[in-house]
Amino acid sequence: MVFPDSSSDIKLNARGLARIYLGTWPYIFAELKHFIALLGMTLAMIGVGTAVAFLGIDILWDSVGQGNRLSSAQAGIMLLQDTGYVDSDNLTSEARRTILFRFLILTAVIVVVTTTVFTVIQMYKAWILQRVNQRLRTRMVANAEELSLRFHSQSSAGDAIYRVFQDSAMVTAVVDNIVVVPMIGLTTLAMQLAIASLFSPWFGCLLMIGVITCVVLLVVITPRLRKLSAVARMANATLFTRVQETFQSIQAIKAYGYEATNHARFVVESSEGIDTAFRLRR
Prior knowledge:
Elements: H1 14-30, H2 32-65, H3 72-77, H4 93-146, H5 149-154, H6 157-199, H7 201-248, H8 250-255, H9 259-281
Helix pairs in contact: 1-6, 2-4, 2-6, 4-6, 6-7, 7-9
C-alpha cells in the first residue's frame, strides 16, 4: 500500500495556508457566487441579531424595568399606539405589563424565524459543499483513469477507493474549515470587537485575550490531530483493501476454507480502524 511521504505534508503556516488556498481555489471559484451569497446571508443574520439584542435590552431595561417611555419605532414594532407608551414620560404598571407581554410574543416570533433562517443557511452551505465534493470526486476519478497500468498494478484498490470518498470529504472539510468558516468568523469577530469597544475598550481587550488563547490552544493541539489523522487514514485504507480483496476472492476463500482466517484479519483491521477514529475524535 502506497502512502504519501510525510515530508510532503502541508504545514499550517503561512506558506501551507497559501498552498491550501491555491489548491482549493478552482473548486471554490466554480461556486463563488454561492459562497458570496452564503457570506451575505450570514452577515445579514448577524446584523439582525445584533439589532434585536440592542432593541431587547433597551426595552427590558428602560421601559419594563424603569418605566421610561418607548420610542416611536419601538412602539411600532410591538404594534402599540403612541398614547400611553410614547407621549408619556413615565409608564404605568399596566403599560409595562403590556409591553412585557408584547415583547415576549415578539421574541418567540423572532426565535422561530431566526431558527428557520439559520437552518436554511446551514442547508444551503451543505448543498454548496456537496457540489464542491462532487466536482472533486469526478476530477479524482478522471485523474485515476489517466494513470499508467504500472501505477495501478502497484497500488492498492482499497487506497484508491478511500481516496475518492474519504479524501474528497476531507478536502471539502478543508474548504469549509480553512476558507469558509475563517472568512465568516473573522468578519463576525471584527463586528463583535467594534460593538464591544463601543461600550468599553476593556471589553474589546478581553475579547481579544480570549481569541488569542484559543489560537494558542489550536497551535498546540493541531500537530497531534494531524498525526492521529494520518494513522486513521492508513488504518481505514487497509480496511477498505481488506473488504475489496475479500469480495474479489470470496470464491477462493470458501474453496480453500480460509473463512476463519480471513474473518479474523477483518476483525483486527476493523477494530483498528474504529480505535484510530475514536482516538482522533477524543
